[in-house]
Write a structure and sequence with these properties.
Blueprint (H helix, E strand, L loop, with lengths): L1 E5 L3 H11 L4 E5 L2 H14 L5 E4 L8 H14 L9 E6 L4 H10 L4 E4 L4 H10 L5
Parallel strand pairs: 1-2, 1-3, 3-4, 4-5
Helix pairs in contact: 2-3
Protein name: Response regulator receiver protein
InterPro entries: CheY-like_superfamily (IPR011006), Sig_transdc_resp-reg_receiver (IPR001789), ST_Response_Regulator (IPR052048)
Keywords: Phosphoprotein
């Protein structure tokens, strides 16, 4: 499994990396612009990400915009919607509007509120069909 961890907070990035590294090759981006760049490079190289763990509140480009751009890039690359990258939004925002926007405007796969508990993240990965 190939994972892109996107978070501007060092502690959160590191914690997600520690949880995921036994199960996946992990790359890190510190904002939405870096995430979109890495995501596109993965598709261009034929080594697409299987999962993106995406924070919503970040400088440069927030997670909502990054997610919309990633979905747009998938369309440009003719990736079928059912085969698109799985996106777990990982955020401090426990709010209906943000949740709605992430799922219905951005196409998020799931939504976890920080602090992320290892057991909840691993359960979510299993629910998404990843073997962990």
């Amino acid at each position: 499994m190939r994972v892109l961890i996107v978070d501007d907070d060092f502690y959160c990035r590191n914690m997600l990396h520690e949880i995921m590294k036994p199960y996946a090759q992990c790359d890190i981006a510190v904002n939405g612009e870096e995430a979109v760049f890495a995501f596109k490079k993965g598709l261009e190289s034929g080594n697409a990400y299987d999962l993106v763990c995406l924070d919503l509140v970040m400088p440069e480009m927030d997670g909502q915009q990054a997610l919309r751009e990633m979905r747009s890039i998938e369309k440009d690359f003719k990736v079928d919607e059912a085969d698109g990258v799985k996106v777990i939004v990982t955020t401090m925002l426990d709010d209906r509007k943000e949740t709605h926007d992430a799922f219905f405007l951005g196409g998020a796969t799931s939504y976890l509120v920080k602090p992320i508990e290892e057991s909840k993240l691993l359960k979510e990965l299993n629910n998404l069909g990843f073997s962990v």
